[in-house]
Amino acid sequence: PLELTQLSALRILGLPSNQFGGTIPPELGQMSTLIRVYLFDNQLIGTIPPELGQIVSLEILNVHHNQLMGTIPSDFEQLRGLKYFSVGGNQMSGTIPSFLAEFENLEYLILHSNQFTGTIPSGLHLLPSLQVLDLSKNMLTGDIPVGFQQLREYHLASNKFSGTIPEDIALMSNLELFDLSNNTISGTIPMAIFKMPQLSTL
What we know:
With 202 residues, this protein is mostly beta strands. It contains no helices and 15 strands. It starts with 11 loop residues before the first strand and ends in a 17-residue tail after the last strand.
């Protein structure tokens, strides 16, 4: 309800795992005190309002497992404080925005089970805090970027990635899970991958 916007001190909006329908009200963008928004596991439809990009204090935005469509709004470029961003399990499309590669606080980027196309943005591997990257079950193409220094989980299954597994994958010493299943990867598995100290799932 739009009356939510009258809660001028609200910092956490948590309405997950219900059967809420309808669209996400753009008026939420007026709630400048919000730092966490949890709307996952509902039946929300429509697009993600670009007005949410006005909540520059936002650290967590989780809208996974709804019926949302459209693209990630360009207005989200202002959300430089995001630590957790999940739109997984929707019907989102378009490309992964390049501005996400500038979100230095981002720890979790969850975009699985949508219809995203294109390549993984250059520079994403330079994010200093990124720990979990889940891009599985989309229509992404291109080579596999490596060089993520803090990444623990790298989910790329069920896309259209091609090429070979880069030798430099072994430099990702914190990697625990690396899932490349159901792509068109060729060549051989680099021997160095078997010496990765934390890797438990391949």
